[in-house]
Amino acid sequence: MRKTAYKKELTIRTTQKRKGAANIKKDVIKIQSWLVLFSIWNPNSGTAIKIDGDFGPATERAIRNFQKIKKLPEDGIVDKTVFDALSFNLKEAFEKPLQSTNVRDLIVEVAQNHLDNHPFELTINTQSNSGPWVRSYMDGKDGAIWFWCMGFVQMILDQAVSVLGKKFETLMPLTYSCDTVGTIGLQKGLLTRYQKIRKDPSIVKKGDFFLIQKSTFDWTHTGIVTAVDQGVIETIEGNTNFQGSRNGIAVMKRTRNLMKSKIDVFSIEPLV
Predict the structure, then answer these.
(1) CA distance 260 to 137
(2) Which ranges does the record mark as transmembrane (predicted)?
(3) Among 96, 149, 185, 269, whose CB has the most other CB atoms within 10 angstroms?
(4) Angle at 104 between CA 103 and CA 108, to 5 degrees
(5) Sign of the C-alpha dihedral, residues 134, 139, 143, 149?
(6) Residues of the chain whose pLDDT is less than 50?
(7) Which 3-state string (H, E, C) describes 148-162?
(8) Do 151 and 138 contact (CB within 8 A), yes or no?
(9) In CATH terms, is domain 5-91 a member of 3.40.710.10?
(10) pLDDT tens-digit series, residues 180-214
(11) Where along the chain do its domains lie?
């Protein structure tokens, strides 16, 4: 795999605890981030805390609450075992063995596996588009300026095709820009415009990815196509929300109408 920044999110340098002499602020922020992420999908867990890098009594209590849920010793200390439990979903998303044997099915399987593990962005130090999931998709970068929908798509492609010894760079360079990818798609004859798709939706296939067109050479959002049926696509998208925003908060599964939205589609056929 080309995109391996996620591995840094699965480790801390040393055991962290309240008033610990070996505490490292960046590691405490990681721990607090995972506690908050756990609380999003487990709102009764008591693990929602402030992300400030200070391992104080609130962080200790949140760790104890997490340990109780996970049936771990309730000592409020984060060693490798506890941190592995905190970051389990990310490891599962990136390293779970895949079952599919062809590129299109692999892309959909990988995207679904990420979705099942609840990727979600955080706001840290007033910066949205932050946290371990965003950094994993964006090669270590996060913060308000780093819209991460294309980073998500390229991560899914990279993870899927690497299983077969292929490289996603066959289609495009590493980039976070929908405009760059759209332009390359036109140059290579791989991007089909929405006008043609509306006449023949069968052009679109699962495993392809879409680009929402704002104007002729300006695209604002992207995601993976997981199914196509009667002019409707089902998708898995990063950096979106329930309204389909280009700067949302999570990975979500959506349904989009090819007949009403300006949806161009990039074919992954050269990788098949």
Answers:
(1) 30
(2) none
(3) 149
(4) 115
(5) negative
(6) none
(7) CHHHHHHHHHHHHHH
(8) yes
(9) no
(10) 999 999 999 999 999 999 999 999 999 999 999 99
(11) 5-91, 96-271
